[in-house]
Write a structure and sequence with these properties.
The chain is of the alpha+beta class. It contains 23 helices and 17 strands. The strands form four sheets. Strands 12-14-13-15-16-17 form a six-stranded mixed beta sheet, with helices on both faces. A hairpin with a 5-residue loop joins β4 and β5.
Length: 540
């Protein structure tokens, strides 16, 4: 009988939560590792219907019904296989492929693929402990990897020569190319990975389907990964998940870090539930896979701007997967360090403190809004409200969505609008800006939110109150931005000239001063004035 390609049905099972699909028809309660409810296939008052998200099947201890996500839809809705696949594909947002059966050639191709990647893994492992791989072994040992860890994760070394192309010279080129290990160049086949520390990438069945190679000579990029193949898709692959699956259930959460070495070190220092995306930004597919195991996730990123941006993106991706029993948090490793370095220098206790003090999603999203919008202005608050509304609209659990919305409404009332009840006090420091310039800046802020966001740090430093509504400016967007830039330059020049006067005063009074510092200030003043003159010329 014709059937859908296994890769499509496997992806359906991967993207969809068995618990979510069954709970649409059967109220489920979690007890231990499984979910329980009354069987939909026979009448019962005491729940004997068990659902295992991890194993991907349900079983009724009363009537004996047993199956997976596809068979449940078929039996519960009395539809055939094709109709069930179509319904599940709609739920997953996937395009339904044509029904087809794998040919013998396709099956053989997949078997050959796994045989090649397995043989390559063994060869890379051997080479790591040879003279040619000595520098790679030294590097990984310096990173704190023991021989047991190297063996467990099957880490190896790809030499500078074309070892894989030579090993399989009796195999057709297209078979080698299909694995991503070999490319075809002007002079024939050559190894894609050369002089790299090799991290095998495993599928759910613990088979090696791809590799991630790390540079050893300082060249960029640090990591290169197997390009997408028939059996490997970066957007749907989580590094370390095959090792972390059981730990995720035991810990009742998963931890997501940014890189392979971080994930391995975390797994071997008391955080076995840690995984990492592979050579690509976090995707919805990654979140879907993890949520099938557990909806409690801690995102652990670097504390720099890139890490903050990655956290914001992760926040928006995880919102559709939130449920009222979800516990999603954000942890940041500061000081230019990563989890690997924290573990090596400060130990597991320091890393655990970072994880334990992670910020809940509802607070992280609130802090993000307050950092990125001028919430002391009506326009800024409006933008912030729109952003929050857009984020909350992604939450599919409507009751949970309403509860979070109510929480934010309380915060907005107490923190954004409480200023209305504050009486005026004359002690407020007045800005050192004339009233005409102040009004122009206020009107620009009211008229052009995009300019406000771009120069938010400078505008907030002016000590101007933007609470009151003012008439919108007649300046064009371009002229308004030039006004802000020119004013910023003028204040910068004024600051430098003040510093210069301090140094000159020291010189006149006979005190010691740094002549190089004075020259540096003069250079900065001249550069700023040139920029200001150029800007004025452009305005003309």
């Amino acid at each position: 009988m014709a059937k859908f390609d296994n890769s499509f049905t496997d992806e359906l099972r991967q993207r969809l939560s068995l618990v979510d699909v069954i709970s649409r028809r059967v109220p489920l309660v979690k007890k231990g590792q499984n979910y329980w409810g009354c069987c939909p296939f026979h009448n019962e008052k005491t729940p004997s219907f068990s659902v295992s998200e991890d194993k991907g099947f349900y079983h009724c201890f009363g009537c004996g019904e047993h199956g997976d996500i596809i068979s449940f839809v078929m039996k519960s809705e009395n539809i055939d296989f094709k109709e069930a696949i179509k319904e599940l594909a709609d739920m997953a947002g996937m395009k339904l492929p044509e029904i087809k059966q794998k040919t013998r050639e396709q099956i053989e191709a997949e078997e050959n693929y796994i045989q090649i990647t397995e043989s390559a893994t063994k060869k890379y492992q051997e080479l790591l402990y040879t003279e040619s791989g000595k520098h790679a072994l030294e590097y990984i040992k310096k990173r704190g990897f023991s021989d047991e860890m190297i063996k467990k994760y099957r880490i190896g070394y790809a030499p500078k020569n074309n070892i894989i192309a030579s090993m399989f010279n009796n195999i057709k080129h297209e078979k080698l190319v299909s694995t991503g290990l070999v490319k075809i160049g002007e002079y024939g086949p050559y190894d894609f990975f050369r002089d790299k520390l090799m991290f095998p990438i495993f599928n759910a069945h613990n088979q090696v389907v791809a590799f991630s190679g790390r540079s050893l000579d300082g060249s960029e990029p640090k990591y290169i990964n197997t390009t997408d193949t028939e059996l490997f898709h970066k957007r749907q692959t989580i590094f370390g998940f095959n090792f972390a699956r059981d730990a995720i259930h035991r810990a009742n959460r998963s931890i997501i870090v940014e890189g392979q070495i971080d994930a391995i070190q975390m797994q071997n220092h008391g955080f076995g539930e840690t995984v990492a995306p592979l050579g690509t930004a976090l995707t919805e597919d990654h979140i879907a896979i993890l949520c099938k195991s557990n909806r409690n996730i801690i995102f652990c990123f670097d504390g720099d701007n890139a890490g903050q941006k990655a956290a914001v993106r992760a926040c928006t991706l995880v919102l559709p997967f939130l449920r009222d029993n979800s516990d999603v948090k954000f942890a940041f490793v500061t000081g230019g360090k990563d989890p690997d370095e924290i573990l090596k220098t400060s130990g597991e206790s320091a890393m655990r403190k970072i994880i334990d003090n992670a910020t809940p999603l509802i607070d992280f999203l609130w802090e993000t809004v307050n950092k990125n919008y001028l919430i002391n202005t009506p326009g800024g608050r409006a933008q912030a409200e729109k952003y929050l509304k857009d984020c909350l609209s992604k939450i599919t659990d409507k009751i949970f969505q309403n509860e979070i919305e109510n929480e934010y409404n309380n915060r907005k009332f107490n923190q954004w609008h409480k200023w209305k009840k504050t009486e005026y006090t004359p002690e407020i420091e007045l800005p050192d800006i004339d009233i005409m310039t102040t009004n122009v800046i206020k009107s620009i802020v009211q008229t052009y939110p995009e300019i406000t966001e771009k120069y938010i740090d400078f505008l907030t430093s002016l000590n101007i109150s933007f609470d009151e509504d003012v008439q919108k400016t007649d300046l064009s967007l371009e002229d308004a931005e030039k006004f802000i830039i020119s004013f910023k330059l003028q204040r910068y020049i004024k600051k430098l000239e003040t510093e210069k006067q301090v140094l000159l005063s020291k010189a006149l009074s006979g005190d010691e001063y740094n002549s190089d510092e004075l020259n540096n200030i003069n250079n900065k003043i001249n550069e700023a004035k040139e920029k200001l003159e150029l800007l004025m010329d452009i305005k003309k």
